[in-house]
Amino acid sequence: MKTKYFGYEFRPAVTLFAHKICESLGLDPVEIEWSEYTQTACINQHTMILANVRDDAVLTLGDLQRYTGFVVHELLHRKYTLFGVNHRDQYVRTLHNAIEDAWIEHKAIQSNLTGNIGELLGSLIDNMTTEGLAQVSDWSNPEQYPYVLAVYARPHAKIKVPMAEGLAPIFEEATRRTHLCKSSKDTLAVAVWVYAQLSNLPTEQPEPVQPEGDEQGEGDDAIQGDGGIKGEGEGEGEGEGEGQGEGQGEGEEGEGDAPTTGGSGSPSPDQTQGQGKVATAPQRGTEAMEVEPTNKAPENAHSHGSFSQASAMQKNAYHVTTRKRFKLGA
User: Fold this and answer.
1) Which of 64, 206, 273, 276 has the fewest CB atoms inside 10 Å of its own CB, making it the most exposed?
2) Residues whose CB falls within 8 Å of the CB of residue 292, separated by 6 or more in sequence, listed in order
3) Mean pLDDT across the stretch 9-24?
4) Could you tell me if residue 72 is left (phi over 0), alpha (psi between -120 and 50 degrees) or otherwise beta?
């Protein structure tokens, strides 16, 4: 098998894979549109849009596997998703996207639709999570909760993200309900339920509990979430604050509070971000962060312009119209 591809080889390879997966899933062939403008892979009834790559870009087998993961995920939407099912509120819509994505992927893996579908979809969500861990600084922000749920509800995700105190029971039940869904109407009902539970959370972080007695030394940093003080304030605990180790600041739950219940993966090294903080309710107008895997061309492979088989060619190889002007290869 090839390990490197030029862009002009890469696009046909991905397109051929998409056609083969359509055949395997019993779907009509889909047209691939390669676009410079897309931030996430997307699909409607007839067209899938992916991030374009330059003809002379050199791409790896890993890039090919990543794109094929996008293709499988989007074709699962075509197979299972009812595109007309939606919600007027942006936050609920994003929760619904998170739950719908988890549902279609889990359903496909359970059905063993293709031989390595679990590996492809697991790599897709793990790449998304790795990107998120590098970019997000506060996982207790309600804007991040749909993103956290999108990871938590996928049992095939190996990498998890931090979770604020109070989210685990909600997301555990949401995952259980998601795996029982039969259609997109059911997943929307789960999203509405999750939003109702989140709305019942506290509206702000509680005031930190001040230590009694001598406040000198590292005692301030050793305050626990339940108001206790960490041991003698000595040793490696100096200045490490809340959310340490195996669930300090989370009562008696220990490391069981880490968000691993929803899947078989293990916490990342950055798991403590967001722990030790209490989950708060999303306020009216809170804009949820995107939960779809980001589809960007690999570094130094980005192409300007768009391309699809149904597009005409204009100067400088930009494909911008929807009507064929040239009949090539006749």
Assistant:
1) 206
2) 40, 41, 42, 97, 101
3) 92
4) alpha
Would you state the pLDDT for residue 212?
67
- In this prediction the pTM is 0.71
Confidence of residue 290 (pLDDT cuts 50, 70, 90): confident
- Beta-strand pair 58-60/31-35: unpaired
Residues 48, 71: contact at Cβ < 8 Å?
yes
- Helix (H) / strand (E) element for 167: namely helix 167-178
- The tens digit of pLDDT for each residue in 25-59 reads 899 989 999 988 877 788 877 889 999 998 999 99
What is the DSSP annotation of 231-290?
A: TTS-GGGTT--SS-TTTTTSTT-GGGGSS-TTSS-EE-TTTTTTTTSB--PPPTTPPPPP
Backbone angles phi, psi at 61, to 5 degrees: -60, -35
The residues near 125 (Cβ < 8 Å, ≥ 6 apart) are 105, 150, 151, 154, 156, 157, 293
3-state helix, strand, coil in the chain (%, to 5): 40, 10, 50
Residue with tokens 């609920």: 92
pLDDT at 285 over 90: no
> Rounded to an integer, what is the distance from CA 302 to the centroid of its chain?
22
Taking the C-alpha atoms of residue 47 and residue 223, their distance in angstroms, rounded to an integer, is 55
Q: What value does the mean pLDDT take over residues 258-265?
A: 40
DSSP labels, 99-153: HHHHHHHHHHHHHT-STTHHHHHHHHHHHHHHHHHHH-S-TTSGGGHHHHHHHHT
| In the block, residue with structure tokens 């980001």 | 294
Average pLDDT over residues 292-305: 64
Residue 76, H or E segment: helix 61-80
What mean pLDDT comes out for the span 143-165?
Answer: 95
